[in-house]
């Protein structure tokens, strides 16, 4: 009989700030698109699908953290992410990478300031728990 392993969750936070997490997500999305381009050039549809799924999940994770109804910058980032998805579907990998890199670089430029604001409590820190509640 096969032994069942207990699923253990680890905290995502581990001392990260919000901007650290955001930069990591953009890096992951960019790397996934680069991998998709390589897989497409190699004619490997299984590998392409694997990296495409990773990219789409990462873009959705970024989008899920936005509040486009409350903030114009968040609204514009949401629009840009949507545009990236359209360009990806058209296999325009270079422009996807370029646009995501520009957004990422913009956040990187304000990372020190954002981290300081988070340390001072002006920006809420990441939650200690990676759980959520839903009210139906």
**Ends: how far apart?**
40 Å
Largest sheet: none
CATH class: Mainly Alpha
Helix-strand topology string: HHHHH
Name the CATH architecture: Up-down Bundle
If helices are DSSP runs of H or I spanning 4 or more residues, what is the number of helices?
A: 5
Q: Estimate the global geometry from the Cα principal axes.
A: elongated
What is the CATH fold-level name?
Four Helix Bundle (Hemerythrin (Met), subunit A)
Structural class: mainly alpha
Average residue pLDDT: 87
What keywords describe this structure?
136 residues, mainly alpha, Four Helix Bundle (Hemerythrin (Met), subunit A), 5 helices, 65% helix, disordered N terminus
Would you mind describing this structure in some detail?
Pfam families: FliS. InterPro entries: FliS, FliS_sf. This is Flagellar protein FliS. It comes from Stieleria maiorica. This protein is mainly α and 136 residues long. The chain has a single domain (18-120), classed as Four Helix Bundle (Hemerythrin (Met), subunit A). It is 65% helix and 0% strand. It has helices at 18-42, 45-64, 72-89, 93-109, 111-119. Helix 1 packs antiparallel against helix 2, helix 1 packs antiparallel against helix 4 and helix 3 packs antiparallel against helix 4. It is elongated and about 50 Å long.
